[in-house]
Amino acid sequence: MRIDVVTIFPDYLAPLELSLVGKARAAGVLDVRVHDLRDWTTDRHRTVDDTPYGGGAGMVMKPDVWGAALDAVAGEATPRLIVPTPSGQPFTQDVAAELADEPWLVFACGRYEGIDARFVDDARTRLPVTELSIGDYVLGGGESAVLVVVEAVARLLPGVVGNPESLVEESHGADGLLEYPVYTKPPTWRGLDVPEVLLSGHHGMVARWRRDEALRRTARHRPDLLERIDPDQLDQRDREV
Ligand code: 6GU
């Protein structure tokens, strides 16, 4: 997969060299290119923003600079344009899985009060465009959201996560529940014991305990997720939790 990121803070994307995403790049699964938006400015001050029409606080990023950047990065091709913005559609594990099927993503990182709306309107006439929000809070710009989205997508690419089983039993996985708590050695630490059932070697009881804990955690932290589970997926034992 190819990923281009356009930003006024290329150094902000330095973490893409590290850890899982860095390894995916080194392994040749990911081709990441970070660009400085100011490369497409034409004035002496390398201006990327201006005051908003209609008045109000803050500055708006200029459509001409963004348009030139996208033209240069995409060329005649049709990568999917991703615009991180608090007014976008929610970024979820399902969206991550969809993006992982794309051959090429271009991220446009807005700052200030956002990018002139005509940039996205124009891009939509020739490219698929997705405006994404990573949560209900406001960031200073799209860069940290790109780090989040790229990591969530990269670990779904074939060969990036060593054991593909780790992609199955995890929070926001197929069963729609949050993950159960996990333990490793030692069996007692600071007076706290690992739950006995996990030491029992009884696979059926371990599976039942994990399912119960996942249901309890989901009910406590994310009751909205429980509502979305198909009742046919719940057995009698689930209902007792
Ligand atoms: Cl994707 N961008 C910005 N600037 N703020 C956000 C966001 C994205 N998601 C939540 N808040």
From TrEMBL:
Catalysed conversion reaction: guanosine(37) in tRNA + S-adenosyl-L-methionine = N(1)-methylguanosine(37) in tRNA + S-adenosyl-L-homocysteine + H(+)
TM regions (residue ranges): none
GO cellular component term, pick one: cytosol
GO biological process: tRNA N1-guanine methylation
Keywords in alphabetical order: Cytoplasm, Methyltransferase, S-adenosyl-L-methionine, Transferase, tRNA processing
Highest taxon of the lineage: Bacteria
Predominant location category: cytoplasm
Domain tRNA methyltransferase TRMD/TRM10-type: start-end pairs: 1-227
CDD domains: TrmD-like (cd18080)
MF-aspect GO terms: tRNA (guanine(37)-N1)-methyltransferase activity
InterPro entries: Alpha/beta_knot_MTases (IPR029028), tRNA_m1G_MeTrfase_C_sf (IPR023148), tRNA_m1G_MeTrfase_TrmD (IPR002649), tRNA_m1G_MTases_N (IPR029026), tRNA_MeTrfase_TRMD/TRM10 (IPR016009)
Coiled-coil features, chain-numbered ranges: none
UniProt keyword DNA-binding present: no
Localization per Swiss-Prot or TrEMBL: Cytoplasm
Record EC number: 2.1.1.228
Binding site for S-adenosyl-L-methionine: 110, 134-139
NCBIfam families: PRK00026.1, trmD
HAMAP family hit by this protein: TrmD
Family indicated by similarity: Belongs to the RNA methyltransferase TrmD family.
Subunit (UniProt): Homodimer.
Function: Specifically methylates guanosine-37 in various tRNAs.
UniProt protein name: tRNA (guanine-N(1)-)-methyltransferase
Organism name: Jiangella asiatica
